Amino acid sequence: MTAGLGIMTSVTESLIVPTNLIPRHINSLLVKGWCLSDANLYAQSPEYAFSRDVVPHIDARLVEFAYPGKGVVGKPPKNVLLKAASCFWQLACGLTDREMQMELAKNLFLREALGGERFTLSERTIWDFRNRIISHGMVDAIFNPVTANYMKKYNADFSTIRFDATRFESNMKNLNRLQLMHAVNRNFLLELKKSGSSLYVELPDGLKTRYGAEEDPDKKSFASNNRKFGGKTTYNREDDLSLLFHKFRDTPGVPGLKSFSDLARVFSEQCAVEGDEKISVWGFEAPKVRLKTGKEIPGSAMQNPSDPDAGFSRHKGQGYSLSLMENVPPPPEDGGIRGISLVGAWKVTGAQVPDKSFIPDVQEAIKKKELKTKVSLADGAYSGQEDFEAFKEMGVKHESPVTVRTPRGGGEGGENAKITLDQFEADGAGEITACPVGREAKTTFEEKGKLVKFRAEFDRSACSECAKRYGCPVKVLTSGAVLDYTSLDYGRAVRLKEQSDPRWQKGYSPRAGAEAMVQKGKNVVCPEGQMKYRTGPKVSGIVAVGVPVMNFMRANHYEERLANHRRKQDNQKNKELGAARHALNRRNGIPETAAGGKNRWNGLAVAGMESKNPLDVLKETAGGARNSLDELKEAGGGAPNPLDGLGAAA
Fold first, then answer.
1. Residue 581 burial by CB count (10 A; 0-12/13-18/19+): exposed, middle or buried?
2. What three-state secondary structure class fits 570?
3. Contact yes or no for 271/302 (Cβ under 8 A)
4. What does the pLDDT look like over 384-404, one tens digit per residue?
5. At what angle do helices 536-588 and 513-525 cross, to 10 degrees?
6. Could you give the CA distance from residue 348 to residue 358 in angstroms, rounded to a whole number?
7. What is the pLDDT of residues 499-526, one digit of tens each?
8. Dmax (CA) of the chain
């Protein structure tokens, strides 16, 4: 302590800086023995922002629930907060467990941010801690206060929000259907063999060797008698799958095995039983099955036994879908900078789940966090009229381009161009009053819950002779000409009219930033382009840490922008003061030095701003009279001075 105080005294005395003018956090480091330059570097580092805005707000008390029991096994560790903070920093820097171990050992700034204690964590400890908090589903509760702190600290404006979704791949191998059935059959046979059950002994040896559960003495296993894995084979894997499923589904103890659950799931998703026909498989009778077509298989079907929660989308592919919502700060005023943008809600689903499933989570976040949202921006995947009406009930104007078209005709072009519902004239209640040509209509409606069905009737003879009848959605029947539509169709038509307005397009333009947001979120949770974890709970746990990490990065960037803005303002003020000083010197007749600087009276001029320098004061006190040489000239009648006389004589 004495040495630290001595260093602080010497540094401050040499720089002639009073101790009470040094910031408190830098002064505390000087007391510990840090030099002033290192203390200033630490104060400007991300580690200091991490210790100030993240570490105090991590709710480490919840971590103790991940360590059940009070005995030797499962005892809560002493440095729970440090482990949770290390987990946060690891994801923020994109480090592996081994790299994080080295980071804790060598990064002195990080050690100071975590309390200044000298401690290390092994790879196993880091992995075990992360696995515990994820498996207990407490990650969001532990790190969510960090996001709440940033919202409160910067008073983030959520009056306008935007949201979008992206897909990222799971850490699994992509298997085709034949490879998938081979994998579940093999896993079940291996687990059945490991359990030591007599049921495994009763199975045919050929079935065991085919899937690698037993060594093939004749070297005629599946891998050796086929050109490649998943290529042309002499047997049907679906028959083996059917045999194992029907033979063991009613056997006590077997349905509880995880591998059998996967086998049963794959059988129900990939195979269909054809009637009561039986076939002989390895001497056993089993129902005859067929492989389902691609349209019959749901997107939630298992893709790989190692990650049963991953889904499949024909549009996105295999893996998971990540949805994020952030605020859109308003434009800056009076030469300021744009406010901070924070992620306020997130959701992880299988790739097969539609993007619009995120809307209820957004609405819940608006209500629960009291965000006072007025406008929401999203792409066409969130353009359902039901969602539009749900936001409207909350007092939020949902802006999303209509992708589901309203009733329209079948024309191609010219006079037969397609006519949509938004081109008809209607009143505020949704009842059509006239067609685009101007013919009147009589509209009736029928309410069915929240949905209202309308029918507009037109003159049949007039519609039959209309030049635009081939592009008109009005159907000409024997009983009359009618147009059937619903209140949802009418709502879409109204929105289509609004979207043709350039003012709407200008207000919708900030939605483009959502693409960069979800891509940044994907880069945080998947630094290498692929998720390092499997199964839905673990993936959700990593994203629950990744969202506060994104807000931490955004807060640091916002602080940098604030500092740069203040620096620019200070430079601008200095320029204005310099210009005023130049103008004042020119007015007072003070010359500039050869180096372009100002003489010693500038300080007095700037200090007084409007006051004159001492030379001007002397002139005023002399009554404007000239100096002594001028007086001699006047006395001599304008004759030159003695020096001039000498020059003339020479």
1. middle
2. helix
3. no
4. 888 888 898 999 999 988 875
5. 120
6. 9
7. 888 888 888 888 988 888 888 888 888 8
8. 145
- pLDDT attached to residue 333: 78
- Give the pLDDT confidence score for residue 406 in this predicted structure: 54
Which two three-digit tokens encode residue 203?
């199975």
In the predicted structure, residue 48 carries a pLDDT above the cut 80: yes
Q: Is the dihedral of CA 420, 424, 429, 433 positive or negative?
A: negative
Q: Where are the alpha helices (DSSP H) in 107-234?
A: 108-113, 123-135, 139-154, 177-194, 198-202, 205-210
**For the whole prediction, is pTM greater than 0.85?**
no
Q: What is d(CA 389, CA 391) in angstroms, rounded to the nearest whole number?
A: 5
Place of tokens 């499949």: 312
d(CA 632, CA 629): 5
CB atoms within 10 A of CB 237: 23
Assign 38 to helix, strand or coil.
helix
Q: H or E element: which one contains 398?
A: strand 397-399
Q: Is the pLDDT of residue 96 over 60?
A: yes
Task: Name the residue among 67, 87, 78 with its Cα closest to residue 142.
Answer: 87
C-alpha 187/C-alpha 170 separation (Å) is 20
Dihedral pair phi/psi, residue 245, rounded to 5°: -70, -50
Q: For residues 356 and 374, what is the distance between their CA atoms, to the nearest angstrom?
A: 19
What type of residue is 573? Answer: K
Return the structure tokens found at 421.
């519902």
Mean pLDDT of the chain: 77
- HSE-up of residue 578 (Cα within 13 Å, Cβ side): 9
Element containing residue 456 per DSSP (H, E): strand 451-458
Backbone angles phi, psi at 498, to 5 degrees: -65, -35
Which amino acid, residue 385? Q
Split at pLDDT 50, 70, 90, the class of 410 is low
Confidence check: pLDDT of 256 > 60: yes
Cα torsion angle, 238, 241, 247, 252, sign: negative
Q: Are strands 475-476 and 451-458 parallel, antiparallel or unpaired?
A: unpaired
Q: Which of 579, 584, 578 is nearest to 605 (CA)?
A: 584
Residue 246: pLDDT above 60? yes
φ/ψ region of 520 (left if φ > 0, alpha if ψ in -120 to 50, else beta) reads alpha
Question: In terms of Cα–Cα distance, which of 350, 197, 174 is closest to 259?
Answer: 197
Cα torsion through 634, 635, 639, 644, rounded to 10: -100
Give the count of beta carbons closer than 10 Å to the beta carbon of residue 121: 23
- What tens digit of pLDDT does each residue of 211-232 get? 876 664 444 444 443 433 344 4
Structure token digits, residue 186: 């093999």
512 vs 269: CA distance, rounded Å: 38
pLDDT at position 608 over 50 = no
Cβ pair 270, 238 in contact under 8 A: yes
Q: How far apart are CA 310 and CA 467, in angstroms?
A: 54
Task: Outline where 195-257 has alpha helix (H).
Answer: 198-202, 205-210, 237-248
Per the DSSP assignment, residues forming a β-bridge with 476 are 481
Q: Residue 480: left (phi > 0), alpha (psi -120 to 50), or beta?
A: left
Least reliable range by pLDDT among 83-92, 166-175, 281-290, 479-488: 281-290
Q: How many CA atoms lie within 13 A of 370 on its CB side?
A: 3
